[in-house]
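From the shared-data thread, chain only:
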Amino acid sequence: MTAKEKMTAPIASVGADVEQPLQNFKINQSIADLPGKGNLQATNNAENTAKSANKKNPDDLETVSMMELYDTAYPPKLPIIDGLLYNGTYLFVGSPKIGKSFFMAQIGYHISKGLPLWGFSVRQGTVLYLALEDDYARLQQRLSRMFGIDVAEHFYFATRSKNLNEGLEEQLKEFLVAHADTRLVIIDTLQKIKEISGDKFSYANDYDIITKLKHFADEHNICILVVHHTRKMDSSDAFEMISGTNGLLGAADGAFIMQKEKRTDLKATVDITGRDQQDQKLYLKFDPKLCLWKFEKAETELWKEPEDKVLSAVNTYLMEAGCFQGTASELMDKIPEINLVPNQLTRQLNIKAGRLYEDYGIRYDNKRCHDGRIITLEYEKE
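Structure, as tokens:
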């Protein structure tokens, strides 16, 4: 690890008797991939898709019962940065010249290199940064100040693109075809890809543009991080300071709000909210020499679910057996301490497949064949 990389490692918490550092997170652990798409919509499930294809009228409303939901194994939604950033579409909002672009470059560099960010483990992959307010000369200077001459091979940049309604999706699709391991696309800024419209502050327009980005992110199992500005008026709720209408936040999977008390301050706070994570607030400090954001403390310690006895028993069994493939009844015979009937066990594993993977690194699959439903359990290969 280079000197620059070491500078982005976790920093000791300030005021640890009051605030909690990020010591709960798994350090220096790469989050491996799972096969298949990460979109959790029912239409992406093979059985539901087949059922949909057999509908008499394609315009009929497709419904799924609660029983069908529980009996379906959906791909878990894994984090890009553990506890911070997941697949989907996120806003990153702050006032002009607050340090958003340095933050974006730092996130992109860590994901493309697979380096933990302040103790948060990272799922490595290619990153595309649409730096639409920059030019390549400025990017070169900024990145060299941040990371020296240590190059991230899978970190790509563009300073021009089409707007969303005139071909941006096609441009992004071409990039994804060429770089199948893409994890993150950063769009800096939202205004640069919006269609020029007289209805500048329309809830419908704001909701529509983020919804289009979200559909693209879900379809391709990636994260899209959209940089945007805050409005000038203050608010006690940081998320009400997002410029535009509530349609932006309403359609997004989550948002980051970066704030400083004064523009010249080196310290900043980042409020985070999202559908797939707990709300939190980070305290950061900018190093003007290295041009890197350093972690100081988190406002609260994230709540962690207590140990699940069923998942723990599965892990204990697999530690000896290595893997399992068979019916739920056969799995019950292998783990008699699980006091459930077979269909209850199957539903538990369907619902908690994501936690089984995140806590123990166990991949779970549940497919129907001529002998009934077959469960597959195995540790993710290194």
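The mean pLDDT is 83.
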